[in-house]
Amino acid sequence: MTTSTHLLHRRRFLPLFVTQLLGAFNDNLFKNAMVLHVVYSLYNSESAEAAFSGIASALFIIPFVLLSALSGQLADMRDKARIIRLVKLAEIPIMITGGAGLILAWRGLAVEEAAIPLMLAALFAMGVHSTFFGPIKYAILPQHLREDEVLAGTGLVEAGTYVAILAGTILAGWIPVQWAAVGVVVTALLGYAAGRFVPPAPPQAAQQPLDYHFVRASITLVRNTMHDRRVFLAILSISFFWSVGTILFIQFPPLAKNVLSASKEVSSLFLVMFSVGVALGSMSINALLKGRVSARYAPPAVLAMGLFVIAFWFLCTRWGTPAPGRQLMDVGTFLAQPLAIPLLLSLLGIAVAGGMFVVPLYAFLTTFVDKSQTARTIAANNIVNSGAMVGGALVAMGLSALGVAIVSQLLLSAALCVISALLGRMLHCCECRRR
Question: Are 25 and 187 in contact (CB under 8 A)?
């Protein structure tokens, strides 16, 4: 078994880990500060709040659909460390734009005309930023790590991502929006500084012409990647997982406000519990598998996730109808409610099971293909994942527009977990046959 902690002392891993951690932190500090401010300070309608949350999620995800093919080509045919530096440099003006939108919204100046468009434009640009960084953070691992370190490194990257989501979510819910505006710019500067220390990662194959026709390139990339059945099943399984995650993340802020009568700090607490749980699941699966890449635990893990979603739905339906005009509960008042702790534990269970499900599948994508193809494999995965996430966001928005209650939409997430379990089972069977 390869332990994870020793990698944190190695230059071949630590700068990349810090860079991706800061990037995930900044994404979530900005996005959650924006969504929470709009939901709790600007809008007063469950359907409008859910629609804005869905639009924000879709805008962040769309660049993955459009540009992942190009990002995968670049990552496989150029030095990955150099791309990291360029991407992190671009983050600085993006966050200056987003920070300006947050300040305008805080001051109540030109909210519809300038503040919201600036914030959404920055969110879309951060989606572009993450599209080009995403393939690298996984594809660079087999290049810098030994074979028996890849699962541990993948688990650390995934856990670090969710710890960063945790930190960004906490700050977004607890600090004033004007301080969030300053924080996103400072974090962008720190991310660029960390990225400069990532060791060189030259391409593993001869350079080829880049295909800038994103539709054709995307179709070609996905078709060329999915011919291996194990890779095909891993990508589909991950995609269904992220569609579940997208629906849940869209629902949390309006659900906390309108179903549980809870403040934005409680909404932030929900996202925190989710992030902690995925980090715990990401680390624990490495211990269970003893460093070996396998989908053995994927089906039971995602079925457990579905059961926890049903438990979360059941507890929400038993919470009771908020009294008209009732003041939103702060964290202390919320935790004093009889069902609060079971609700949070069910949410933690969703996330732990989800982390245990998804980490080995990402390791599959980086270890069962040639090193010269890893970035493009991750890019193909991002295209399919993003399509599923956009689909999940559109379904959630459509159900809200049709008047389906937020709490009832949780059952859709549970149903998708069953499909993920079937795909995970097929992947494990395929894996056993290949041995």
Answer: yes
- Are the beta carbons of 306 and 417 closer than 8 angstroms? yes
How distant, in Å, are the alpha carbons of 256, 322, 433 from that of 262? Answer: 5, 10, 50
Superfamily of segment(s) 5-201+209-434: MFS general substrate transporter like domains (1.20.1250.20)
Per the structure block, which two tokens stand in for 39? Answer: 């939901």
pTM: 0.67
Q: What is the pLDDT of residues 98-148, one digit of tens each?
A: 999 999 988 888 877 889 899 999 999 998 998 888 777 777 777 767 766
282 token code pair: 């990401």
Question: 296 with 361: CB under 8 angstroms?
Answer: no
Query: Any idea where the domains of the chain sit in the sequence?
Result: 5-201+209-434
- Supply 212's token pair: 């800038």
Tell me the two tokens of residue 418: 């069953």
Average pLDDT on 51-58 reads: 78
C-beta neighbour count of 374 within 10 angstroms: 27
CA angle 315, 319, 323 (to 5 degrees): 160
Whether the predicted pLDDT of 62 surpasses 90: no
CA dihedral 28→264→317→237, nearest 10 degrees, is 0
Give me the phi and psi of 259, to 5 degrees please: -95, -45
- Identify the CA nearest to 425 among candidates 296, 275, 282, 265: 296
Q: Which residues pair with 262 in a beta bridge?
A: 329
% of the chain with per-residue pLDDT over 70: 88
Q: What is each CA distance from 430 to 90, 167, 369, 420, in whole angstroms? A: 42, 38, 15, 15
